[in-house]
Amino acid sequence: MKFVSIVIGSKSDYEVMKECAFTLEKFGVAYEMIISSAHRSPERTKNYIKSAEEKGAQVFIAAAGMAAHLAGALAAGTTKPVIGVPMASGELRGEDALLSTVMMPAGMPVATVAIGKAGAINAAYLAIQIMALDDDELRIKLLEDRISKAKKIELDSSEIEVIL
User: Fold this and answer.
1) Domains (ranges, CATH) in the chain?
2) What is the pLDDT of residues 121-131, one digit of tens each?
């Protein structure tokens, strides 16, 4: 079975990353979510990557704050796409996590999205887009979602617009 793997660095990341899960659910995309840390449980993280790939993980999403090495640890252990979601935490409110996630060495890419909730949702959308490359049903759902969003903008505008 093809699915998206969501790995969060700590339980405190769940409140934000449940938005990622909800977005995947909205599109009918299977996922699993675990807590594992690049620093506090490196063996668990390493073993999980192998297990997830064997079960059919197509894309990994990693959420972590502060030093935020989780996405890099996943990228080092797989050739599947990895999407990093920096978490807002600590004195720098996620800017440190953003830099840690985006500044990967050449040849070890991590697609990095925005800090926090918008990033969690966009990580799901990016994973869905990747999976839709060979799934026409999923591609159609994405197109329908875009059309729905455009119609909502038009409706919202019609309620307030003033045009001369």
Assistant:
1) 3-135 (3.40.50.1970)
2) 999 999 999 99
